[in-house]
Amino acid sequence: MTDPRPKYTQLIKAEARRLGFMSCGVSRAEFLEEEAPRLERWLRENMHGEMGYMENHFDKRLDPRLLVDGAKSVISLTLNYFPAEEQKDTGSPKISKYAYGRDYHFVIKDKLKQLLHFIHEEIGEVGGRAFVDSAPVLDRAWATRSGLGWIGKNSNLISKKVGSFFFIAELVVDLDLEYDDPITTNHCGSCTACIDTCPTQAIVEPMVVDGSRCISYFTIELKDNIPTEFEGKFDDWMFGCDICQDVCPWNRFSKPHNEPLFDPHPDLLNMSKKDWEEITEDVFREIFRKSAVKRTKFKGLKRNIEFLKEKSGNS
């Protein structure tokens, strides 16, 4: 009898490409032995700050078989979000590029559902679940195992061909597939651009980011006031931060995405510093109606903008 795994794997990868995913790799669903002590140390040293949810489901984060009964394969996928244009006013508060358009959770979840439906149609009854950054899955670890890239010194997944401006998602399925070879070489070499330019020194050592010092953490996750010790260190970021990716030499290979849902609201790129400082709740609702920026709420974004103003007022 012919081994069906190569055929099934090629079918799935071809459909992933058709759905707009940039790359697709497959790895065996098993316990992440190497990652376990790293995650344990990261939590023990409180690098997750107030992100209490990171402490939940420790075992499930390390073993996808606890998330899907009989799981055999982790299908890792990437989706490009690098924009064709960026904010025009270089002196205005900045938004991370991933949040320019529609909230990626919804965009990717929809594509994953379509991929799972395709698997059911073409292969048969396959048990599986889709994961997009909102469940206890170590997506970068699985993407590395699936041959999609290596973990850079800024802890992001990096690809030689396209850099790092992409989302990662997974389908965990109870189907045997052909597994890809992991990328075992770290191509960062002696480069330390990301470590050197992080204004809050959040990259405490290669591949270890203290989340509780990261600008993204302060501007999105932290609900309290931003500590005054970080005044003047945000480089005008009001939601998220792209510094460690912007300076990465591999991102010279980034190409604009072709996902219309990631295109920004027409007004977003043209807003001036004054526009942002005077933003009203109505404007916030209109521009970020279906955006990931809603996560910080109007109150949170205003807090971040005020924090940046305090910096310029003190200088």
Q: What attributes characterize this protein structure?
A:
two-stranded parallel sheet, alpha+beta, NADH Oxidase, 11 helices, four-stranded antiparallel β-sheet, 315 residues, 32% helix, single chain, 2 domains
- Mean pLDDT over the full residue set: 92
Terminal-residue CA separation: 74 Å
Number of structurally distinct domains: 2
Estimated structural class? alpha+beta
Radius of gyration: 20 Å
Total helices: the number is 11
CATH class of the largest domain: Alpha Beta
Could you state the oligomeric state of the chains shown? single chain
Shape category: globular
H/E element order: HEHHEEHEHEEEHEEHEHHHH
**Unreliable spans:** none
Question: If you consult CATH, what is the topology of the largest domain?
Answer: NADH Oxidase
What's the count of strands?
10
Q: What spatial order of strands do you see in the largest sheet?
A: 1-2-7-4
What is the second-level CATH architecture of the largest domain?
A: 3-Layer(aba) Sandwich
Helicity range: 25-40%
Quote the beta fraction.
Answer: 5-15%
Largest beta-sheet characterization: 4 strands, antiparallel
What does this structure look like?
The protein has 11 helices and 10 strands. With 315 residues, it is of the alpha+beta class. It folds into 2 domains: 5-173, NADH Oxidase; 193-243 and 265-314, no CATH class. The strands form 4 sheets. Strands 1-2-7-4 form a 4-stranded antiparallel β-sheet, sandwiched between helices. It is globular, with a radius of gyration of 20 Å.
